[in-house]
UniProtKB/TrEMBL annotation:
Domain of life: Bacteria
GO MF terms held by the record: ATP binding; kinase activity
InterPro entries according to UniProt: P-loop_NTPase (IPR027417), PRK/URK (IPR006083)
Keywords, sorted A to Z: Kinase, Transferase
Protein's name in the database: Uridine kinase
Statement: the UniProt record of this protein carries the keyword Transferase: yes
Domain Phosphoribulokinase/uridine kinase stretches: 26-194
Amino acid sequence: MSSRSSMLDQLVAKVTSFELARPLRIAIDGRTASGKTTFADELAQRIRIQNREIIRTSIDEFHLPKADRYARGRLSAEGYYHDGYDLPAVVAFLLRPLGPGGDRLYRTASFDLVKDQPVEQEPKLAPEDAILIVDGTFLQRPELVAEWDLVIFLESSEEVSESRGINRDRELLGGEDSARRLYAERYLPAFEQYERLCSPKVTADAIVNNDDFEFPILSIPRDSRLAVNFQ
């Protein structure tokens, strides 16, 4: 079993071998509290060392207003899945400008979650060889899936993710009991719906089992966009 560092080095080598004459758009997908943000930050840091421009953001920078997010109820799994994010803004502000035929003028946020108000952000011009890394849940929904050049899916069990999430969010969510209820009624069922509708593990270019943080397990599907370059 390879170490986390070795696994990340393997992925960096494959990711940086892509030449598109435009920015490369990478999604770090997975269930809530699977370790997506940490993984995306680690990948970005290692790529920066190779003097590649990194555009780093999260789907959490593209929330819908609180009134929309909780319109079906604070604990609603349907609400989390359908009403959590402004997916048209993700496409229009970020993914499409960096994609084929795009002008490379991108924005990394549309909404301030804390202030519950839109973000006014001046577009930036991405270098042709920039690499975009976005972490988030539901990144392979139909509205987004065709916009990614590579998708890395972080796999983790319900038990591990729930434990990590509750430890991380208990104060923010009003205590351990409130956090457990939110995970049980909102986050976990919403991800189950995502799995049923989108089969995100099946369509990903790489799967990283992240239950063991020190020794994650990397697998590359034979027909993925990474398979050609993977040794």
